[in-house]
Amino acid sequence: MNLEIRLLDARLDRIDLFPRYATPEAAAIDLRACSFNGVLLDGDEWTARIIRPGERIKIGTGIALDLGSHGDENQHVAGLILPRSGLGAFGITLGNAPGLLDADYQGEITLALWNSGEHEYILRPLDRLAQLLFVPILRPQLSVVSAFSRHTIRGDGGFGSTGMA
């Protein structure tokens, strides 16, 4: 499968910065910090940006994708934006994790970054902040019924209904 990508930040055209899988068996590609409030994270003024505890900011990743460009009208693809586990140890996560990219969204992928920790975090230009996982989408037809056609052991048992440990 091939997807079209637009590089909105020319720095990502370098082989070491282009969105890619970090290892042969990695499930997702890394997303990088390219802009803050529409201003490029670069140069002396933007060498580092402090994210204070509790602060939420939007970071542009410098890329846009067409998830519907793979050529198969019967197969739908979405993107899940997930936090990087290494940053979670510092309290840096996504305010809407996971984020969802629909196949018809073609704008810049933007991260809603949140410092849920107790310490300031130093954000540097082109830091890897999140990861993008591509997933197939099923779009079943929904049929209204008065009762389900099958019965399960769990039924409508909710929270804790299968045990606590």
Written account of the structure:
The chain is mainly β and 165 residues long. The protein has one domain: Deoxyuridine triphosphatase (dUTPase) (Deoxyuridine 5'-Triphosphate Nucleotidohydrolase, Chain A, Distorted Sandwich), CATH 2.70.40. 2% of the residues lie in helices and 37% in strands. It is built from 1 helix and 12 strands, in the order βββββββαβββββ. The chain has one helix at 85-88, and strands at residues 4-7, 29-32, 35-36, 39-40, 49-51, 56-66, 76-83, 92-94, 99-101, 108-115, 121-123, 128-137. Strand 3 (35-36) and strand 4 form a beta hairpin. The longest helix is centred in the middle third of the chain and has 4 residues, at 85-88. The radius of gyration is 20 Å and the shape is globular. It starts with a strand and ends in a 28-residue tail after the last strand. The mean pLDDT is 89.
Give the C-level CATH assignment. Answer: Mainly Beta
Domain count, please report it.
1
Q: Structural class, please?
A: mainly beta
| pLDDT averaged residue by residue | 89
The CATH homologous superfamily is named: Deoxyuridine triphosphatase (dUTPase)
Please give the largest β-sheet: 6 strands, antiparallel
Gyration radius, in Å: 20 Å
Element order, helices and strands?
EEEEEEEHEEEEE
How would you sum up this structure in a few lines?
The chain has one domain (4-137): Deoxyuridine triphosphatase (dUTPase) (Deoxyuridine 5'-Triphosphate Nucleotidohydrolase, Chain A, Distorted Sandwich).
